[in-house]
Amino acid sequence: MIDIKLIRNNKELIKKTLKNHTKEGVDSSLLDKFEKIDSEWKKNSTNLQALNTKRNEKSKEISILLKEKKNAEAEKIKKEVSTMKDEIEKLNEVCNKLEKDLKTLLFSFPNILDDKVPLGGEEKNKVIKEKKPKKMNFKPLSHKELGVKHDWIDFERGAKISGSRGYFLKGDGAKLLRVIRDLTLDLHTENGYIEMLPPTLINEQSLYGLGKIPFFVEDMYKTWDNLYLTATEEFALTAMHQNEVLSEEKLPLKYTASTTSWRYEAGSAGKDIGGILRVHYFWNTELVNFTTKNDSSKALDLMCKQVEKVLNLFSLPYRIVLLASGDTGAASSITYDFEVWVPSENKYREISSCSNCLDFQSRGLQIKYFDKKTKQNEYVHTLNGTGTSLNRLWIAIVENYQDKNGNIKFPKILQPYFLKKKSEKKVVKSKGKKAKK
To answer: pLDDT above 70 covers what percent of the chain?
Structure first.
């Protein structure tokens, strides 16, 4: 949530933000609605304050009259005060409702965009770095074809359980996801991130604070008791410190987690159904940072470098893209997407997004720190990044390391996990021959 003072005092900036920040259905008429309700609230609040002041003055007058034994005059004023009390109660109800309406509208405003963000839609996204793929002298198979070929994925039985986007990973396919999950977590913890195992259910209060309601909620699964399955670990890792004042000495706080994420994929019916690219349940390794207000820009650079370490760990081709205003999420001030090369599609696919949310989420969640310089509590800045999507990392590894026969020649970092078994079999076989002789 953005600062209400910003909306009241810098309307041109807000108009510009609403015009350009359009990815998740931002309502361009928000400012008009806000101004109308805000004007009503100010008018009624002023009247309420004046009425309270007048009532207090009359109450003092009654006290003086009673001391002077002027009971008749005191009773007359008491009736006036009683009438005022009824008016005050009604005004209180009006102001409370208007204040509630204002807060609801506040949660609907997107974050203020960074000056670096290009204006426009997806076509204005800017590639800032690229590690190009090696050319393949054969037609690459898709991860779906490779998964079936090696008996690593079972879509048929997955569909029995979960419908068209259901799947089982099995054998070395399941092992591959487990291994890359552990390797990414180890990489992040070695670089100062605290490993967490967060809840996978989250309440509406937290989602409002995060800026996911109203923008993202239609993509989330909701339970019967009004909880939601988390669409990414960022939600729980950021909301965990709501209503807290953090110690400045402990900042930056850096968390990482890897659990199953859930997303309804509303509005994507028929899109990317094949394989495990766009599915209802998937694995991520997430990164979340809490910093002081002056350190978030530097923290975003470091987070992006952390994601690059993952992609370089597996020696994958990728590119980094600065998202344009119309492609930036509502809670973000600036976002860099990391896209990995998918040979069978002959294109890059998003595998990570790193965003600086400034104080947008911390204001909604009331997460602060005591600033020694200003001698007061300030809102922390929050950042999040996918470090990385494990389903898509699985796809990228399988497709980029296939040969012309469809065999997978894993990168060096993975070879100890998948070649050891074969070498052990050879040793057992050779010992057996010697024993026969």
So the answer is: 91
